[in-house]
Amino acid sequence: MIGGGQLGRMFIQEAINFDVEVHILDSDINAPCKLIAHSFTEGSITDYDALYNFGLDKDILTVEIENVNVEALEALEKLGKKVFPQPRVLKIIKDKGLQKQFYIDNAIPTAPFFLINSGKELEAHKENLPFIQKLRTGGYDGKGVQAILQEEDFSKAFTAPSLLEKKIAFVKELSVIVARNERGEIKTYPAVECEFSAAANLVEFQFAPAEISSKIEQKAKEIAIDIIQKLDMVGILAVEMFLTADETLLVNEIAPRPHNSGHHTIECNITSQFEQHLRSVLNLPLGETTILQAGAMINLLGEIGFEGPVFYEGLEECLSLSGVHPHIYGKQFTKPFRKMGHVTIAGTDLETVKKTALAVKNKIKVISTN
């Protein structure tokens, strides 16, 4: 696996059940995967030689983050290595400009956008305000994305190549996770609803199932299936969408890996997204995705004003609440807005789960012992 963060860690936890050996490449000597991987190699996932040499003795390569050296994966693929998702897919998705153009070329609904190469080009698009500016490459976990609402905001704009996306007045943000194996079998998960923190620019709450009509649910699944088929992709894909007041669905972004919006599947669905990722890249029959119980997920983010050795204040108290399942990622040091873990709340009905989720959010604080 290329990347040794929390997604890789949860992937390994499922792979152990299949007695599958997972080897990790990551530049962080304290990466969350290190202590549970079959082997750990320290090296940059964006460095050609480090990635190429890592993959030479592997049977199958997959990723837990899309910002990797695609050229090295292409070379390994030419040697006969199985690389999923395929390098050509990663090349499209890691560049938000290419990703958007893929939607246009394949009649996939998305928000209007414009591509720019530098901040100097913003002036030419002032009539399109307000818009969201996204760096074409390198952004993750809310980084590389910002709102440009008025001309006064031009001074804070990114200067690197980016896209300007028309700001959409949506009523809900949804996500559908879809998986596909080599034989072409496809399974989708029920849609979930995401609520974002404006301060962190990250998902704050995620609820499952989404409170939408069966018509919208079906349409969202059809869009997700259409995308993974047109990409001819093997692996697991998260498809984030905006739902507007007139019930239009617009694709926001896609992620070719397990995703924050699927963490609840560990407790709430027959097959977790991490097991499904494993099944898809090994070309095994895909698992059943039916939701068994309602769920909510809260990201545990480092509190503002704290940086250093981590301490989870209020965690023990939250464990006395019904349905609370913590997932701590093993990161030794916290800093503001860093993803340190998540908590899933599972229960028989969504209303109760939401109430418990709010209580958990108010109790747990990720602080430092310094």
Provide the β-strand percentage band: 25-35%
CATH topology of the largest domain: D-amino Acid Aminotransferase, Chain A, domain 1
The total beta strand count reads 20
What distance lies between the first and last C-alpha atoms, to the nearest angstrom?
Answer: 34 Å
CATH class of the largest domain: Alpha Beta
* Range of helix content: 25-40%
Reported CATH architecture of the largest domain: 2-Layer Sandwich
Biggest pleated-sheet summary:
9 strands, antiparallel
Number of domains: 3
Considering the protein shown, what is the CATH homologous superfamily of the largest domain? ATP-grasp fold, B domain
Helix/strand-derived category reads: alpha+beta
* Sequence stretches where pLDDT stays below 50 over 5 or more residues: none
User: Helical element count?
Assistant: 10
Instruction: Report the principal-axis shape.
Output: globular
Average pLDDT figure: 94
Element-level helix/strand string:
HEEHEHEHHEEEEEEEEHEEHHEEHEEEHE
Radius of gyration: 20 Å
Describe the structure.
- The structure is a single chain.
- α2 (48-55) runs parallel beside α3 and α3 (70-78) packs antiparallel against α4 (87-93).
- The protein is built from ten helices and 20 strands.
- It is globular.
- The chain starts with 5 loop residues before the first helix and ends with a strand.
- It has helices at 6-15, 48-55, 70-78, 87-93, 96-105, 214-231, 265-268, 273-281, 315-318, 350-363, and strands spanning 23-26, 39-42, 60-61, 82-83, 113-116, 131-135, 145-148, 162-166, 170-180, 186-188, 192-197, 202-208, 235-244, 249-255, 294-301, 308-313, 324-328, 333-334, 339-347, 365-368.
- The chain has three domains: 6-83, Rossmann fold, CATH 3.40.50; 112-166, Dna Ligase, domain 1, CATH 3.30.1490.20; 170-368, ATP-grasp fold, B domain (D-amino Acid Aminotransferase, Chain A, domain 1).
- The strands form five sheets. Strands 9, 10, 11, 12, 13, 14, 15, 17 and 19 form a nine-stranded antiparallel beta sheet that branches. Strands 5-8-6-7 form a four-stranded antiparallel beta sheet, covered by helices on one side.
- β9 (170-180) and β10 (186-188) form a beta hairpin.
- It is an alpha+beta fold and 370 residues long.
